[in-house]
Amino acid sequence: MSESPALRAHRKKLPLKLKILYSTGDISTSAPLALVSFYYLFFLTDVVGMRPDLAGWVVAIGKIWDAVNDPLFGLLSDRIRSRWGRRRVLLLFGAVPLGTAYALMWLRPDLGTAGLMIYYSLTFILFDTAYTAVHVGYNSLTPELTTDYDERSSLNGYRMAYAISSALGVIILATVLSWSIDSPTVLYSTIGLIVGVVIIIPPLIVFQVTRDHTFAAPEENISLLDSIRYTVSSRPFLMVMGIYLLSWTAASVLSAVLVYYANYYLQIPEQSNNFILLAYGAAIVFIPLTVWLANRLDKRRAFVIGSLTWIAALLGIVLLRPADIAAAYVLVGLSGLGIATTYVIPWSMLPDVIEHDQVRSGQRREGSYYAMAAFFQKLGTGAALWAMGQMLALAGYITPDPAAGTLITQPSQAVAAIRWFVGPIPAVLLCGAILFAWKFPITRESHQERLDLLDANAIQGEG
């Protein structure tokens, strides 16, 4: 059976220029979330001066809003009819609100405890809403660019190179600015402003470079409840979200705790950024290996291999003594393969799930799937920061005086909690992710069978 010219073109390799320019969109979806993972809890506790449990609740309130916000944007993007398409329009009108709300998150207004809670909760919600619009619009275009199993791994390799590079970039920015800005309040507001301006640009680039591509027309409208029901009833989707939620939460836990680990366990606050730079710099180096493993073996086995190496490194970190600084650098660097795996593999699995659902339901609903994926991604970050905030508070963490500028000695219980978050907790989460990956049912062969079936149906429709 021959393919139609349109279907055959959809299977061709994507031009390198398109991959490079399209992948810039991950700067706007990864850089702001990375900065939140790395520093936001620390910013609220050690710069703003909030108790860690209250700081954790600021993030949790945003996650509660996500339960409404993300499904709504997913359904909206599947229904939109505009001259800019149903996905690209979200990039066009979401870019400026995204950058503006993000800059506001890092200001320190002169308010009391209640006022600060309200301010940071509201700005987080505003950012989160704009982020969802851009995230869903951008990611929903990915499965529409190509249906090829290996080409999707390649595209996601480029995308995640941008994603991890942008995460690395914000750490370099924070490090360089800290050399000349002594005030933590001014430092973080400056970082927030610069990143806020930068993340406005990539969605507009993606909007422009995809203007000549023909994307799927909106499917028959279905209700919000039906859309959610169809999405969460997909077993492969639930497997991918299990993989992603657990592995992303592990990455978010490690990202957030490294600055506390360097400050209060290793007692080297001046090197705290170095560990984050090393972890994500190594992840960039390991991305080609991750893509090669996915193409050589399959996505499931590549995820298992990357996660097992990461677990070994995490368990090694928890055994270190405060004097074992060189070993800490080595083990954090080895964690890069696991971080690369978390970024690349689940996102390359999700487009395959969409074709699986299309065969099953007759509907193509990228927006709904990527909206739920956005929810799980942000849930992972939110859960990590909330849990850390609550556990640190229970362990007697002492909130430093932002004006003092000196490193304090934390209670032994608080230091022990930090060590749990840097090793055993993310290792357990990764074990759960491995179990989900092992049960993921879509292989290269089964995905090809579904594509052939969709091709056959499309040819019959053209006839």
Element layout with pairings:
Elements: H1 5-11, H2 16-22, H3 25-47, H4 52-79, H5 88-105, H6 113-139, H7 142-145, H8 149-178, H9 184-198, H10 201-209, H11 224-232, H12 235-264, H13 272-296, H14 299-318, H15 325-361, H16 366-394, H17 412-422, H18 424-438, H19 444-462
Helix pairs in contact: 3-6, 3-8, 3-9, 3-10, 3-12, 3-16, 4-6, 4-16, 5-6, 5-9, 5-10, 6-16, 8-9, 8-13, 8-15, 12-13, 12-15, 12-16, 12-17, 12-18, 13-14, 13-15, 14-15, 14-18, 15-19, 16-17
What would the keywords be for this entry?
463 residues, mainly alpha, Growth Hormone, Chain: A, 19 helices, 78% helix, globular, disordered N terminus
Structure write-up:
The chain has 463 residues and is mainly α. The chain has a single domain, classed as MFS general substrate transporter like domains (Growth Hormone, Chain: A). 78% of the residues lie in helices and 0% in strands. Helix 3 packs parallel to helix 8 and helix 3 runs antiparallel to helix 10. The longest helix is centred in the C-terminal third of the chain and has 37 residues. The protein is globular and about 70 Å long. The N terminus and C terminus are likely disordered.
Residue stretches low in confidence (pLDDT < 50, at least 5 long) are 1-10, 459-463
* Biggest beta sheet summary: none
Number of helices: 19
- Using the coordinates shown, work out and report the CATH topology: Growth Hormone, Chain: A
Compute the gyration radius: what is it?
22 Å
Shape: globular
How would you sum up this structure in a few lines?
This protein has 463 residues and is mostly helical.
